[in-house]
Amino acid sequence: MKLVVVLSALLLLSLAAVSSAEEFDFFYLVQQWPGSFCDTKTGCCFPDTGKPATDFSIHGMWPNYAKCKTQGELDGVIEMVTKGKKKCWPEFCNSEPLQLWEIKDLVKELDANWPTLACKGGKSIEFWSHEWEKHGTCSDLGQHGYFAAALGLKARHNLTAVLADTGIVPSDSETYSLSSINDAIKEGTGFAAKLECNRGVAGEVQLYQVYQCVDRSGENLIDCPVPVQGNCKNRVQLPAF
Ligand SMILES: *[C@@H]1O[C@H](CO)[C@@H](O)[C@H](O)[C@H]1NC(C)=O
């Protein structure tokens, strides 16, 4: 009897979670530099569509909270799952799988701008599916809207071009000051971005990912509601690809 009560309470709570719109404050549009993805001990593999362009590519568009939430600030369902741990973004909001037919008209653009570089099969659709399931299901945009929004933002704010305009071009020998990269992005897109660096095989610090903040509509860049301090050092590389 007790079990039945607990189970029906859980069911009610999960139904409530499915039907309510997802609460989040902004998106991170995360783009990665392929040269930095590949110059690591793990390395990279090209997708079955061939070597991607020498251009930033999309990692994902991630719903995020402006302030991390603790137990009690979240609704009952998540509270039970996280047990007091802080949660800074929602994820896996429902179990709706990505349907290729929903994004059919975007596949060509997705192949060019959102290619997988992971060495597990070479199918970019698996990468898109993962991003959809983990982040897109929390976006309130729907499948087509989610992917179209990320592609639109990337096309309107071409980071490769923004950096090249100030002389920051891919090179295995040049290093660039972090402030010159920050300034170029602020100047070229209108907004500061958070920069993430990784280390190449030889230990050099390389610009790996750029996090731009986007409003809940998925249409406009905004001033980040969270600090944009990243982990890069004073001088960074943009390795050739
Ligand atoms: C972004 O700009 C670079 C450099 O000008 C260019 O090669 C690339 O094709 C552009 N990317 C897109 C998606 O237009």
TrEMBL record:
<keyword id="KW-0732">Signal</keyword>
<dbReference type="GO" id="GO:0005576">
    <property type="term" value="C:extracellular region"/>
</dbReference>
<keyword id="KW-1015">Disulfide bond</keyword>
<dbReference type="InterPro" id="IPR033130">
    <property type="entry name" value="RNase_T2_His_AS_2"/>
</dbReference>
<dbReference type="GO" id="GO:0004521">
    <property type="term" value="F:RNA endonuclease activity"/>
</dbReference>
<comment type="similarity">
    <text>Belongs to the RNase T2 family.</text>
</comment>
<dbReference type="Pfam" id="PF00445">
    <property type="entry name" value="Ribonuclease_T2"/>
</dbReference>
<feature type="active site">
    <location>
        <position position="59"/>
    </location>
</feature>
<dbReference type="InterPro" id="IPR036430">
    <property type="entry name" value="RNase_T2-like_sf"/>
</dbReference>
<feature type="signal peptide">
    <location>
        <begin position="1"/>
        <end position="21"/>
    </location>
</feature>
<dbReference type="GO" id="GO:0003723">
    <property type="term" value="F:RNA binding"/>
</dbReference>
<protein>
    <submittedName>
        <fullName>Uncharacterized protein</fullName>
    </submittedName>
</protein>
<feature type="active site">
    <location>
        <position position="135"/>
    </location>
</feature>
<dbReference type="GO" id="GO:0006401">
    <property type="term" value="P:RNA catabolic process"/>
</dbReference>
<feature type="active site">
    <location>
        <position position="131"/>
    </location>
</feature>
<dbReference type="InterPro" id="IPR033697">
    <property type="entry name" value="Ribonuclease_T2_eukaryotic"/>
</dbReference>
<dbReference type="InterPro" id="IPR001568">
    <property type="entry name" value="RNase_T2-like"/>
</dbReference>
<dbReference type="GO" id="GO:0033897">
    <property type="term" value="F:ribonuclease T2 activity"/>
</dbReference>
